[in-house]
């Protein structure tokens, strides 16, 4: 059979569910039908992708390889769709000052700072699902300043044609309930979270979700994602109830009801940068931006 994107989604759903029965429930198909479909998919890849156990399934060596590449392909396809929709949008009026970024504290507080500095200009902010989509807006001149992120193991989009200002690199923190067995530690080894239920990073987390999955797989396990699409506030509420663990960026500020801990090896981090073209009306502001001014707006600085 020819392998298609829908087959990759099936394989990822099985991996994230950890069992055929739970995956069948998620996909809303009969367990027997999913078993048959998965068998055909495995034949298409040339070997078993999962090892069946009494408590569910775990990826084989071939499965780990396929899962990693499948996530990359699906993320790239998602970027293609986002980019196409972005390019199809009508351009904003020339007098508007527009910036864009992936949803998060940096872009929102930079937007607020620009409104303060340029009170007589209409200020527009585009929140996109990936840094690639943000840079596409910059290339097509629909925005004049981009705030982009970079995560380990995830290929960053090229920025050679732009002027760049580094805002800093910060650790990605693990959020736990105060009663969690590891909450007393100063730092946590990712391997110690192998048996946990996880909250998947939100749809607008750029490459954080893929970076987390790869880091977990390098630590010897596939994260069991059971919650999807939660923003940071919702994720914190779920974590505080002890139902799951999640990841949070340091600039996100404190989240009531949970404790956040760095990873012992610094395996997860986020690098934030601003990008603009030489002719951007915000070029001077971006180059001279006092990052301390952002700290005054409640952004916790990277270590």
What does it look like?
- With 303 residues, the protein is α/β, with parallel strands linked by helices.
- It folds into three domains: 5-82, Orthogonal Bundle (Arc Repressor Mutant, subunit A); 84-149 and 158-165 and 272-295, D-Maltodextrin-Binding Protein, domain 2 (3-Layer(aba) Sandwich), CATH 3.40.190; 169-269, Periplasmic binding protein-like II (D-Maltodextrin-Binding Protein, domain 2).
- The protein has ten helices and eleven strands.
- The chain has helices at residues 5-17, 20-27, 31-45, 61-88, 105-117, 131-139, 208-218, 232-240, 283-288, 291-295; strands spanning 50-53, 56-59, 97-102, 123-128, 145-150, 163-176, 197-199, 224-227, 246-249, 259-261, 269-276.
- Strands 3, 4, 5, 6, 9, 10 and 11 form a seven-stranded mixed sheet that branches. A two-stranded antiparallel ribbon has the order 1-2. A two-stranded parallel sheet has the order 7-8.
- Helix 1 (5-17) packs across helix 2, helix 4 (61-88) packs parallel to helix 6 and helix 4 (61-88) runs antiparallel to helix 7 (208-218).
